[in-house]
Write a structure and sequence with these properties.
This protein is of the alpha/beta class. 27% of the residues lie in helices and 30% in strands. The chain has six helices and twelve strands. Strand 10 and strand 11 form a beta hairpin. Bound molecules: glutamine. The site of glutamine has 11 residues, from helix 5. Glutamine binds next to helix 5.
Length: 203
């Protein structure tokens, strides 16, 4: 019954809008817990990395000794969904990072921080996501990164009308430039939970 069980998933809770993600995941029937320590990470079958400020999340994850366990978890196939700053954390390559800024990596993409410039710090757009049936996704962007290039291991999931990639997938990893937790459309979270259920039933 892998498809109907309630997966136990975490939200990285060092910084950013982790409470909103905990709320969404709980509303979708998951058991959702904040993750701040390695021992908490070891107990989840999936992890959301929220929006916030990626340079701060990078520093805190290294300071708290979580960066290496997170990298190991990603390498072991743990499903991880990164939104906005979380997408930056998952990217193998970062453009316009702060001096010395590192990422966890995992997604074979290059992302550019704050790619939409100060004129468009936040905006909303309808996004066609061919992997989802039905309505386009109403996407909310806040000082958002863009996926500047997609390597051969990753696939674009969502593209703006001007061709810029803002959602990507690679196996158990999912990343969006925008914030579904701020809307009522939780199809990306549901897709992440499907991956978490698959991971839980395989271990
Ligand atoms: N809403 C967000 O997560 C903003 C991301 C932020 N600009 C960063 O560089 O991490």
């Amino acid at each position: 019954m892998a498809g109907s069980s309630a997966p136990r998933v975490g939200v990285l809770a060092l910084q950013g809008d982790f409470r909103e993600h905990l709320h969404v995941l709980t509303s979708l029937g998951a058991t959702a817990v904040p993750v701040r320590r390695e021992a908490e990470l070891a107990e989840v079958d999936g992890l959301v990395i929220p929006g916030g400020e990626s340079s701060v999340m990078d520093k805190l994850s290294r300071m708290f000794g979580l960066a290496e366990p997170l990298k190991a978890a990603i390498a072991s196939g743990l499903p991880v969904y990164g939104t906005c700053a979380g997408l930056i954390m998952l990217a193998d390559r970062i453009l316009d990072g702060m001096a010395g800024q590192q990422t966890l990596g995992g997604l074979d993409v290059a992302v550019r921080r704050n790619a939409f410039g100060s004129q468009r710090e936040s905006f909303e757009s309808e996004l066609d996501v061919p992997a989802f049936d039905g309505e386009p996704v109403h996407a909310v962007f806040i000082r958002a990164p863009v996926v500047e290039s997609v390597g051969p291991l990753a696939s674009p999931l969502g593209v703006l009308p001007d061709g810029r990639v803002v959602a990507v997938e690679q196996g158990a990893l999912l990343g969006t430039s925008f914030h579904p937790e701020m809307t009522h459309d939780y199809r990306f979270h549901a897709r992440f939970l499907d991956k978490a259920r698959t991971f839980a039933s395989a271990r």
